[in-house]
Design goal:
10 helices, alpha/beta, 270 residues, 49% helix
Length: 270
């Protein structure tokens, strides 16, 4: 029998990748869900698809989280609709490949705005209501990248380290409130991220079989519902995270750079 969760979940980055998989999980269990994404056409298509498997209301909000004020506008929109959020899944985020000195500041600043600023503000805006109601779940999408420096993806790795640190700190602060915070730290995942970040030719994605988005989403969802603070799916990912704690960070950086070198001999710069 399908579980029913009588709570409202808000999912950012819902138009694809892990965000879409989380949306499907929640829709199949007939939760009320709010979907946030910047691509209006894809968001409408996904909303229609989810409505076919879920009788509960689905609210779709088109917002670009890289834009200042977007999080405040989402909260204001939901307040007008009298919708309170019980489960927040901060899935929006993106990466970018190339040497730090060669990447455009516009791209880096947009990454920081989505991966760090928007995630932090969304958490801050919605956690207050959860604490007042003494119940809530927050899932922040970090990465195994959070545990090490990342040459050729310097800002992305740094942003995920921030997400992990923030999530662990908040999980400690919120103990006893009825609200939990989980950082999901997947390794390579087949979500379209590699192509978007220009990593499809890197050793990381050609030598290692990526997990499916469905597998990672289910693992993260279950960890969130159990109130687990840090969730690393997959034995190899767990071993990799453990290994980074044993060796020097200079070695971790060298290994990461090797993994991101293209396998066809093309330059790794830019």
């Amino acid at each position: 029998m399908t579980r029913r969760i009588n709570r409202t979940a808000l999912i950012t980055g819902a138009s694809g990748g892990l965000g879409f998989e989380f949306a499907k999980l929640l829709a199949s269990e007939c939760s009320k869900i709010v979907l946030v994404a910047r691509n209006e056409a894809r968001l409408k298509a996904i909303t229609l698809k989810l409505e076919s498997i879920c009788r509960a209301p689905i609210t779709a909000i088109v917002k670009d989280l890289a834009r200042p004020g977007a999080a405040d506008e989402i909260l204001a929109d939901l307040n007008q609709r009298n919708i309170s959020v019980d489960i927040l899944i901060n899935s929006a985020g993106f990466g970018g490949f190339g040497a730090f000195i060669e990447r455009e500041w516009h791209d880096e600043s947009a990454m920081i705005a989505v991966n760090i600023t928007a995630l932090t503000q969304m958490t801050k805006l919605f956690v207050k209501g959860m604490v007042e109601r003494k119940s809530g779940r927050i899932l922040n999408i970090a990465s195994t990248a959070a545990f090490q420096p990342g040459p050729l993806q310097a800002v992305y790795y740094a942003s995920k380290a921030y997400v992990l640190s923030l999530s662990e700190a908040l999980a400690s602060e919120l103990k006893g409130t009825g609200v939990t915070v989980t950082a999901l730290c997947p390794g390579p995942t087949a979500t379209g991220f590699a192509n978007a970040a220009g990593l499809e030719r890197s050793r990381l994605f050609t030598h290692i079989r990526p997990a499916t988005a469905q597998e990672v989403a289910r693992y993260g969802y279950d960890a969130m519902m159990r109130g687990k603070t840090v969730a690393v799916p997959g034995v190899l990912n767990k071993l990799g995270v453990f290994g980074t704690r044993l060796g020097p960070r200079t070695l971790s950086a060298a290994i990461v750079r090797w993994l991101y070198e293209p396998t066809d001999g093309a330059s790794s710069r830019g």
